[in-house]
Design brief:
Layout lengths: L4 H4 L23 H5 L5 H5 L1 H4 L1 H6 L2 E4 L4 E4 L2 H9 L4 E2 L12 H9 L15 H8 L6 H5 L2 H15 L4 E3 H6 L1 H11 L6 H16 L4 H27 L6 H11 L6 H31 L2 H9 L4 H11 L6 E5 L3 E3 L2 E3 L4 E4 L1 H4 L35 H18 L4 E2 L19 E3 L6 H4 L22 E12 L2 E7 L14 E6 L2 E6 L10 E6 L7 H8 L5 E8 L10 E7 L3 H14 L2 E8 L8 H8 L3 E5 L8 H4 L7 E6 L2 H10 L8 E4 L16 E5 L4 E5 L5 H7 L17 E6 L2 E2 L7 H5 L3 E3 L4 E2 L3 E4 L2
Parallel strand pairs: 2-8, 17-18, 17-20, 18-19, 20-21, 22-28
Antiparallel strand pairs: 1-2, 3-5, 4-10, 5-8, 6-7, 9-10, 11-12, 11-16, 12-15, 13-14, 13-16, 22-23, 24-26, 24-28, 25-27
Helix pairs in contact: 7-14, 10-12, 10-20, 12-16, 13-14, 14-16, 16-18, 16-20, 18-20
The structure holds FE2/S2 (inorganic) cluster.
The site of FE2/S2 (inorganic) cluster has 14 residues, from loops.
């Protein structure tokens, strides 16, 4: 399997004559699919994630003889490579993937082309020293200042087309607005935008494309001119250093710290950053509009509930990001996903494929704007080289979406064939044709619509905003003081799928409360909850009892499952106290359906106060034990838990004292036998009076972050631009877990078991803190 040197000019197959283990009948260790893989073929150009499905499933790391690269397609392997930038050097990130012809080299030489190190392709320790010098412009506060300008630019472009009824959004605004924003941000004068766009295309083809020998010369001309142009702009800016913008910051650093921010670095950054700062956002925005408009129901949800826009933009970045692959080179022989990559092995990480890895994202091919871990996507990269401009890109995408959903909710995607600039790493349609009926424009009826903007905070989307619109379908009494409520989609669509143990966060007025789903798992049209009126509660349940009526709209988050049923055990003990029966019902149904051995213990004050007794007697009569206090029946936990069993799992929900008794009573059971669901977060909420500040060192991003006494670790990480998923933010769900490398942890969550806590190797960043002054985190 000798690589086609005339095509790629890139070396020799590493297996050739190396005596590597055979994988194919002819003795070649490169599988036929790996041998056939070519990222310039149509399938990869159209949809890189789909083109590598076979690889994710069967051969997650393979050598591509046609490319001369090791291709990595699974989420965890890609993240591990991003994490370790000493073993996996970024130095080839901007190398020409198709080596230049002699003619092209001669052209570049004529222009004195000398693109060298920039932020994306330099090694440590130079990289972090420079990155730290250049971070100030990216704090949320600094970025916030750009929002009005982005808004104005988008609005002007939209004004220009709003009465037209048809447009190619790429040509009209998707590249020009991000380019203008990028130039503003950098402080570069806006001149000849069309020319800059052509230069950017040439740079992309030169670095990540496979131009033909004739195209190579043309591309080299464009790149050479771009290099000269960047140099001229830089000199002009240096001549009047009083200007504002990120390039001026760099010029300033160059003046004061010329050994850190060198002259060549300034020039290389100038050219690279003009491209990086706009092309990625332009393509990501075009992808997002394409994906959302091709799903009219999702688009309608966004129009009805614009709070979903940040989550939708993030999910589009995951599902169809603009950066689909990135490169590293191995500095030593190393194993990735069970495959040995030799020292000097070039690696193509297909981030678009990692973003569709079912091991990390549930139903990865679905565009689900309610997804709770979309922020984990790899489109911005990860670790110390993660995209610095990610929050500026997010801001632009959100403003585009917000303006369009408000002003043109009736926008439609036209039937069209999409084309892409042929290259390995950047993806987005070259044109995006949409149409609408201007007569229906809402601002024709109400001019206030034009300016009724909604702003979003800078940074990763807030979980709190990811809410679905629902409507109350039915309210009935399930027991004394317990209402059973059925919820349905306001448009009659199917409700989202859920699994036993799932709950929803109900948002009613100012209240957000968690309620387990207690209906039938396969009911396509209703989500059902049961609400106990708690007189001593915070008022949410009383409000629901007094005000909830059929037909009433309300919002909820979820369904989500932090109380998942592990179906692998042989035997189950289900324990419910009072209203804690709600998540247990679907578990019992499921276990019955699976034919598992289970027993169901249900304790309450009296039969009249215990919800669902009849239904349980009907469906689970044989296994059900009721304990009614008014009849002197007691659930004897000591007896129930006396005999630990290897093959038995316990699932329990109910009052805190029942759960505490279960935790105390199962010490002699195997670790992980007991699963409980807490609905209150005592002790997890921050009390600044009694906290101390500490700092965290982040090993992957090489940052040190201060956590003040009045901030959670999660808040401090986000303010530093580090994206960590979260959900409950009360220590109940486990989504914000972070690995701890060093330091003593003050655990405040209800998720980790005693043994997990004792391990001192992970914490819930939304509530837990450092016992001492410092923690080291693998982030
Ligand atoms: Fe749920 Fe932290 S976000 S435990």
């Amino acid at each position: 399997t000798r690589r086609n040197e005339t095509d790629t000019g890139a070396g020799v197959c590493p297996f050739h004559g190396a005596g590597a283990p055979s994988m194919a009948p002819n003795g070649c260790p490169v599988s036929p699919r790996a041998a056939a893989f070519d990222p310039f073929d149509r399938p990869y150009q159209l949809d890189p994630a789909e083109a590598l499905r076979w690889s994710r499933e069967q051969e997650p790391v393979f050598y591509s003889p046609r490319l001369g690269y090791w291709v990595v397609s699974r989420y965890d392997d890609i993240k591990a490579i991003f994490r370790d930038n000493l073993t996996f050097s970024p130095s080839i990130a901007l190398e020409k993937i198709t080596p230049a012809s002699d003619e092209a080299l001669a052209v570049l030489e004529r222009y004195d082309y000398g693109m060298n190190r920039t932020l994306v392709n330099e090694d440590e320790p130079a990289h972090m020293a420079r990155r730290r010098e250049l971070l100030d412009a990216f704090t949320p506060e600094a970025l916030e200042a750009h929002a009005p300008m982005v808004r104005r630019l988008v609005r002007e472009k939209l004004d220009a087309i709003i009465d037209r009824g048809r447009a190619d959004l790429v040509a009209e605004m998707f590249w020009e607005v991000p380019l203008t924003v990028a130039l503003h941000f950098l402080g570069v004068p806006e001149e000849d935008m069309e020319q800059l766009r052509r230069f950017s295309v040439a740079h992309t083809l030169n670095t990540w494309g496979r131009p033909s020998p004739e195209q190579q010369v043309e591309v080299a001309e464009g790149v050479g001119k771009f290099w000269q142009y960047s140099g001229e702009v830089l000199r002009k800016m240096q001549a009047r250093p009083e200007g504002h913008g990120w390039m001026y910051d760099m010029i300033e650093k160059n003046r004061h710290k010329p050994d850190i921010v060198t002259d060549n670095y300034l020039h290389s950054m100038m050219m690279a950053i003009i491209v990086a700062a706009h092309e990625t956002t332009a393509l990501a925005t075009a992808n997002a509009f394409r994906q959302l408009l091709s799903r009219p129901a999702v688009w309608a949800d966004l129009c009805d509930n614009p709070a979903l826009i940040p989550a939708a933009a993030e999910e589009c970045l995951r599902h169809s990001g603009s950066v689909v692959a990135w490169r590293r080179i191995a500095t030593r022989e190393v194993e990735v996903g069970g495959v040995t990559i030799p020292e000097g092995g070039r690696i193509l990480m297909v981030t678009a494929s990692g973003n569709h890895d079912p091991a990390h994202f549930e139903n990865p091919d679905e565009l689900d704007i309610y997804r709770d871990n979309a922020v984990d996507h790899l489109t911005f990269g990860y670790g110390s080289h993660q995209c610095m401009g990610k929050n500026l890109g997010r801001m632009e995408m959100r403003i585009f979406l917000e303006e369009f959903t408000r002003r043109l909710p009736h926008l439609e995607l036209e039937e069209q064939e999409f084309t892409f600039l042929p290259n390995t790493s950047f993806r987005g349609p070259e044109a995006l044709w949409v149409r609408w009926d201007p007569v229906q424009n809402p601002e024709r009826r109400d001019p206030a619509v034009r300016s009724a903007q909604r702003d979003f905070p800078v940074g990763a989307p807030s979980r709190q905003d990811i809410a679905r619109e629902m409507v109350v379908a039915k309210v009935q009494t399930a027991a004394k003081g317990v209402l059973q409520i059925a919820l349905e989609d306001p448009h009659g669509r199917r409700v989202p799928a859920w699994s036993p143990g799932s709950h929803v966060d109900l948002i009613v007025g100012d209240y957000v409360r968690k309620y387990s789903l207690c209906g039938e798992v396969d009911d396509p049209y209703w989500l059902q909850i049961a609400v106990l009126r708690e007189e001593a509660g915070r008022g949410g349940s009383a409000w629901i009892h007094e005000h909830l009526k059929p037909g009433m709209p309300l919002r909820l988050r979820g369904p989500k499952n932090h109380f998942r049923l592990d179906e692998s055990a042989g035997r189950y003990v289900l324990i419910a106290g009072g209203i804690g029966i709600t998540p247990i019902i679907a578990m019992a149904d499921r276990l019955k359906r699976l034919g598992k051995s289970y027993e169901l213990h249900y304790a309450g004050r009296s039969r009249a106060s215990m919800a669902f007794v009849e239904r349980l007697e009907r469906d689970h009569g044989e296994t059900l034990r009721l304990y009614r206090k008014d009849r002197g029946e007691r659930l004897d936990l000591a007896a129930l838990l006396a005999e630990p069993s290897e093959n038995t799992l316990l699932y329990a929900c109910g009052p805190e004292r029942l759960l505490a008794a279960l935790e105390a009573g199962t010490h002699h059971w195997p670790e992980g036998s007991l699963h409980v669901e807490h609905f209150t977060a005592e002790g997890a909420l921050l009390d600044p009076e009694h906290e101390h500040a500490f700092e965290v060192e982040l090993t992957d991003s090489e940052l040190v972050v201060e956590v003040a006494a009045d901030r959670t670790l999660l808040q401090a990480l986000r303010a530093a631009g580090v994206d960590v998923p979260s959900d409950c933010e009360e220590g109940l769900c486990g989504s914000c877990q972070v690995e701890v490398v060093e330091g003593e942890i003050d655990h405040r969550d209800k998720v980790l078991t005693a043994a997990e806590r004792a391990g001192q190797d992970r914490l819930m960043s939304c509530c837990s803190r450092a016992k001492g002054k410092r923690l080291k985190l693998a982030l």
